[in-house]
Amino acid sequence: MADLSAMSITSDASSVPAEPTTQTPVTPVTPARRRRLLIAVAVLATVVLAVDQLTKVWAEGALVGGERTPLVGGLLGLSLIHNSGAALSTVTGMTWLLTIVATAVVVVVVRAARRIGSTGWAVALGLLLGGALGNLVDRFFREPGIARGRVVDFIAYGNVFIGNVADIAIVGAAGLIVILALRGIGLDGSREGAPGEAGSDRA
């Protein structure tokens, strides 16, 4: 009788459905795909860096510091400044600290890219890496000296702040990362909260 009871309990336990998982199993990313995604990150970062530096060279040659050239009324214009602080002119005079932060961002992005398995994350990391490098180049190689250089800003958004192409890339990366997080797409391409979808999300 005890044996029969044990068998009944075992049978009942085995009939209870398992709790659904909240994360779709990850399909391993092939080395070839990861290599393509890493190349995409590097190419996008290089393009952002090149465009950022070229537009800064243009701005310094074509614009006069302190003068504003309107593009879209008072909403958007061109105004050359050399920024020793962060966005919105905060942390002014602590350029060395911002240099350390930017360097840390670059290191984190490069390390994270080794686990990449999503096209969306490749775009986000490429934009973030290119933007961080764009401003980091200014910090290292512009006056008044290494790690204390001033960032060239020239795109004026109303009377709020003045930025550059690198800033646009960084903001774009941040927005894309938020979207990917809301969709539950992990850096490796896995997707959380979507049981029933086979494999991983490569978007």
Could you give a short description of this structure?
The chain has helices spanning 2-15, 31-62, 95-113, 119-141, 165-182, and strands at 68-72, 76-83, 151-157, 161-163. The protein has a domain at 41-182. With 203 residues, the chain is of the alpha+beta class.
Structure description:
The protein is built from five helices and four strands, in the order H-H-E-E-H-H-E-E-H. The chain has a domain at 41-182. The protein starts with a helix and ends in a 21-residue tail after the last helix. Strands 1-2-3-4 form a four-stranded antiparallel sheet. The chain has 203 residues and is an alpha+beta fold. A hairpin with a 3-residue loop joins strand 1 and strand 2. It is 52% helix and 11% strand.
What are the SSEs and their pairings?
Blueprint: H1 2-15, H2 31-62, E1 68-72, E2 76-83, H3 95-113, H4 119-141, E3 151-157, E4 161-163, H5 165-182
Helix pairs in contact: 2-4, 3-4, 4-5
Descriptive terms for the model:
203 residues; 11% strand; 52% helix; single chain; alpha+beta; disordered N terminus; 4 strands; 4-stranded antiparallel β-sheet
| Low-confidence regions | 1-16, 20-25, 195-200
- Please give the radius of gyration in angstroms: 25 Å
Number of strands: 4
| Lateral arrangement of strands in the main beta sheet | 1-2-3-4
Distance between the termini: 57 Å
What profile does the largest beta sheet have? 4 strands, antiparallel
Q: In DSSP terms, counting alpha (H) and pi (I) runs of 4 or more, how many helices?
A: 5
Helix content: 40-55%
Mean pLDDT: 83
Strand share of the residues?
5-15%
Principal-axes geometry comes out as elongated
> Helices and strands: which structural class?
alpha+beta
Note the run of SSEs as H and E: HHEEHHEEH
